[in-house]
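Please, does this match?
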Amino acid sequence: MAFFIVLLTSCSENDPQPTPTEPAVSYIINYGDYLGAKSTITAFDKETGTVTNNYYENVNGMALVSNIQHAFSHNGNIYMLGNNPDELFWVDGQTFEQHDNGINTGIVKPRFGVASGNYLYVSCWGGDIWADESISYIAKFNLATKMVEEKISLPGGPEGLAVAHNKLYAALNYKDSVAVIDLNTGEISYIEAPAVTSYFAKDKNDNLYVSLVSTYSDYSENTGLGYINTTIDELEATYPLDGVSTSYVNILAPDLNFEKLYVMTSAYDANWNLSGAIAVFDVADKNFESGFLVEDISGANGIATYNDQVFSFIAESVTANGSVKIYQPDGTFVGEFETGKAPFLLLTVEE
């Protein structure tokens, strides 16, 4: 089934630099649910406004067999990390066809992945990490051999990853720090943080913004954003924001020129209904704008930017399909369309 929406765009004739462009088609990852429904893919064409649900099934003639935890693109492929069962698999970025079987050897409870050269690095919890924080690791996947070449022990529950200056940065979900792995020597060091860290956004200078969150196992009043100078590996500044979401993968979203950084907050009310808001961090001014871009988002499940518009993923029910609501950078509502169950991530393929 297809839905149609119209996206509005804007540009300035006085811009000294040409505006970056994005691929016409992006893919929305729908997680599924914990009751047995596996992930589905929604294809979104920004030029025509066409939305196609069940896209993976349409292309490959079969359904996905796991719940996708994270997905990213590299060298023309889209790599996906699945749970239940745990696996790493990939499709062609242009056709979305899966030509190879996925791999599961060395991949246990994958959380997040990032590419660097001929390798993928996958944060893995390794099992019941809440019972034993020492079992987590980074899987180093060789793209040539299609095998996990090394398991780098990294206690503390590595979550979000980023690569800068040939170093791998790992946000730790069970420690108030960021791990730094030198990819040349394998040496591991740590950057202390005032709260648990979860995900990164890398700016134009390869420095990192990291989300600072409060969790049930590691409570903190120092939530917000941290800024890491990757040249000297120091947390140079923190920017407070109450209630930064502990949702997975999708709580930080820079705009196309990295002038704004959108941050999702969320909280449960007395009846355990999840409601969220989208805060806006001005990169040049180094502060959060007063007021939210959007607030009181029922079923908030993540955010993304696409064509300099803000996508809010909505999952109000575990049994029904979700939706995406689109906003202009000033908060003006643009449109909404239906997705599969629990949409949480929008992926554009590198060209």
